[in-house]
Write a structure and sequence with these properties.
Elements lengths: L1 H36 L5 H19 L1 H17 L9 H19 L6 H32 L7 H7 L2 H21 L5 H4 L1
Length: 192
């Protein structure tokens, strides 16, 4: 009897350790990606990889892990100098969370052709993230609140314009390709 009680106490702890481990690995992957690609100065490369890692986090480790990585990502990016302005970090975190939430909820749809569902999730997530960042930063935060220096505003506006849509679509396309390759080998309950 005492052994059964100990096992029931260990099970939730083991689940928490597994969640923490997966989340930590994904954050480490994110840090490594940002560290390796930022010096190259290719936003398309860095942003696409970050979006792929966000999608991997929610897909492989669940919504709490995906949101954790989404919220930590811009803080770590700020440490690496992406973006250069701290007031942008909460907006980026919210945009990342929108991508993760869109992917999570769209991917809950179960169809025989899961790649089509994942493609819808990728496009929906990219469009929602882009729309939020564009309107929140480019149309409201910069012109109304002046959260960045005036001389940096045009460059920041470009960064949070169509390039956000492109990097989210690329990250999503890579995620769809990878999931399509491994999806048949992993049971959906274990993916989500």
């Amino acid at each position: 009897m005492g052994e059964t009680k100990n096992r029931s106490k260990e099970a939730p702890r083991a689940g928490a350790v597994l969640w923490l481990t997966r989340t930590a690995i994904l954050i480490a992957l994110l840090v490594a990606w940002q560290w390796a690609t930022n010096p190259l100065g290719i936003t398309l490369l860095t942003g696409s990889g970050v979006n792929l890692i966000l999608i991997a986090a929610v897909t492989l480790a669940g919504l709490p892990s995906g949101l954790c990585v989404a919220l930590i990502s811009p803080v770590l990016a700020f440490v690496f100098g992406i973006p250069k302005f701290l007031p942008l970090v909460p907006f980026i975190a919210a945009g990342n969370a929108i991508l993760v939430l869109a992917w999570h909820f769209a991917s809950k749809i179960r169809l025989p052709k899961m790649p089509a569902v994942w493609a819808v999730a990728a496009v929906a997530g990219a469009l929602l993230k882009f729309a939020f960042l564009y309107f929140a930063i480019v149309r409201i935060a910069i012109p109304v609140f002046g959260i960045v220096p005036e001389q940096a505003a045009p460059q920041i506006s470009v960064m949070f314009g169509v390039s956000q849509l492109i990097t989210a679509l690329i990250g999503g396309a890579i995620a769809v390709a990878v999931l399509t390759m491994i999806g048949g080998r992993i049971k959906p309950e274990r993916i989500y």
